[in-house]
Amino acid sequence: MPKLNLPTYSLQLRAQGTRAFYEVMFRIDGRQVKRRVGPAWVTPAGKPRRGRPRDGCLDVAGAHDRAREIVAEHAVKAADPQAGPTFRDVAGDYLRWLERVKGAKPSTLADHGYALAEANATTNGHVMRALGDRRAAEVTAREVEDLLDALAGSGASARTINKRRALLGAVFTYGVKRAGLPTNPVRATDKRREPQRAALDTYSVAEVERLASALAEGRHRDRPAASEATRAEDAQDAELVRVAAYMGLRQGELRALRWRDIGEDVITVSRALSAGVESGTKGGRVRHVPLVPQAAEALERLRRRADFTARDELVFCNWRGRALDPSALVARFKRARDAAGLRPLRFHDLRHTYGSLLAAAGLPVTEIQAAMGHADLQTTARYLHARQASEQVDRFARAFAEGGDSRPPPLRRPPG
Predict the structure, then answer these.
(1) CATH code, residues 86-191
(2) Whole-model pTM?
(3) pLDDT (average), residues 32-44
(4) DSSP class of residue 53?
């Protein structure tokens, strides 16, 4: 085989949220190609770290070695026009298309990137190990089924397996439309049956207030708050859970909320924080949520603080005025929940509490849908089941009322 002349390349340090990675850029057959090389062994400021890179990470020298391998792989494929793209190629192109053309949220890109990653310190790379080097046009439904079976054997839930199957299907659909693949093999595979969704469990208004009190009083802490900043955090967390339960905002929407979004009688929800990046809401739509008195009072108490109350500043922020850390927020919520003696519900169940309270009050399902920003009415309908059962109690009770005169009709025996 004649020696290949490899194109020159450029190695760039990129960042996605808090994660840094190397990207290589080069030209093949007149088109520019960009490929992710791997996680970068750098400081938060982007400077090279000292010492041996952690497993899965690359220093500058290692990144150049891997970049040259990537360039060589593409040069070999370009020299063989019959080869066609590998699944790895199509998957990479799909992720870039999802980001640049479809404007996918950072959390979605992070989830998909994790599922399609090579094996490293944080993922076993099931998908790429099975399909990465296969010509995408040659992947069969049997191979996809074997991959899904391997996921099941590793302990993945039916829901996780179905999510991987849906992602594979999206990659191949993209490949059929844009990479000339003949077919989508995922369509011939079977979706796993998932367990029935558990009934919604939510807090009452009294329980929300118990949770807020536990936060405000610092009962979730190992020792009493020693600084003014810590006491301010406790007070803010208490108002945050009230706004979550009484306005139904998602966690990312709460963390992105600014004072300019608070009107006299509505809150405008137009953005959310996703994987550390501010973007649109989950449904991509702006919504205007009626501001109920309980939430208005909570926000008014927050507005009395000394700092961070200007129009463009965050309503819920850390002591520097920056966005709250989601993991730390959830950890404080869980500790306060336990300190208050409440059922072990999730932070997201505060949003379900909002929907359930509206449904119990008899609001039309379309109004609840609009307030919560649900794209699908079926999602909102979950909150109506408990209300319907509650409304039937009196009618059912009358059917079995003691001393009633009504008698059921006699049962007829079937002929013969």
Answers:
(1) 1.10.150.130
(2) 0.65
(3) 88
(4) P
pLDDT per position as a tens digit, 262-302: 999 999 999 888 777 787 787 778 999 999 999 999 999 99
Instruction: Return the domain boundaries, the chain.
Output: 1-83, 86-191, 205-393
CA 69 to chain centre: 33
Q: What is the CA radius of gyration of the chain?
A: 27
Task: Reduce the DSSP state of residue 235 to 3 states and report it.
Answer: helix
Q: Which amino acid is at 181?
A: L
What's the CATH class of domain 205-393?
mainly alpha
Alpha-carbon span 311 to 259, nearest angstrom: 5
How far, in Å, are 222, 251, 288 from residue 369 at the CA level? 40, 18, 12
* CA–CA separation, 151 and 58 (whole Å): 28
pLDDT tens across 216-225, in order? 999 999 988 8
Q: For residue 355, give the nearest of 334, 376, 333, 373 by alpha carbon.
A: 373
Decide: 287 and 293 in contact? Cβ < 8 Å.
no
Provide DSSP, 160-195.
HHHHHHHHHHHHHHHHHHHS--S--GGGGSPPPPPP
